[in-house]
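[job 4471] stage=fold_predict status=RUNNING
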Amino acid sequence: MPVSARRSDLCALLAALGFWLGAALPAAAAPERVVSMNLCTDQMAMLLAAPGQLVSVSHLAADPMSSAMADAARAYPLNRGQAERIFLMKPDLVLAGSYTAQASVDMLRRLGIRVEVFPPETSFADARAHLRRMGRLLEREAEAAAMIADFDARLAALRARSPDLRPEAVLYGAGGYTSGNATLAGEILDAAGYTNLAAALGRAGGGALALEELVLARPDLVVTPRRYGGQSRSEALLDHPALRRVAQGHRARSGARWVCGTPHLLGAVAGLVRLREAGR
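[job 4471] inference complete, writing structure tokens
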């Protein structure tokens, strides 16, 4: 038999053997005990996990100032990202964020626990990608695909209500920080039919915006964050009389629905659309 024929037969045999071994091996089981220690992975997991699959979320998930799913989060045991406590929950998958305590992530990995880290979302595209990834990790791909399709349909309906002449809005936070178009908050403004003042002033990703610049620009809408109790010098600017005069009833509040890349973003968009259509 020629060498080439023997080589061909050997390749065919190896291919058949590989197929047989692959068919004989059981499929990887879906994780049964999932712990999330990040606000945004908390919410994605709560939306997509099968009943009983998610066993704990971070304490921030139950804070209505930060979480769009605070009520739902109270049904789960809460964690504070402490590796020792999470290890005792016997998870087979831990979900974390890029800014989750690195020491906890490292310790859990050294203990042999699988940890998947998600960076923050900065766009609707990131939100879609992270929902798909969460669906794969939890083996809930079909549920994730359906959620994304519904998100896109609802977003398209909201975008269809954008006016030809778009009013101007500014996002203005503690210390005069503003967000441009290359941010999640900027995408919310755009989807709601507003032009972002920060982008017009050359701050695509965000940065400090002097109150004087804002006053001279006189945007149609000023969006400021909801504030915790207590006193913060960085937030004192938000009470400045000049800012109040510029806003004069044309002011909105950002909140928990603005924070993470989940379908709750559409609640933030819809709220701004209603505000714009009401002429406020």
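[job 4471] summary: Residues 3-8, 10-27 have pLDDT under 50 and may be disordered.
[job 4471] exit 0
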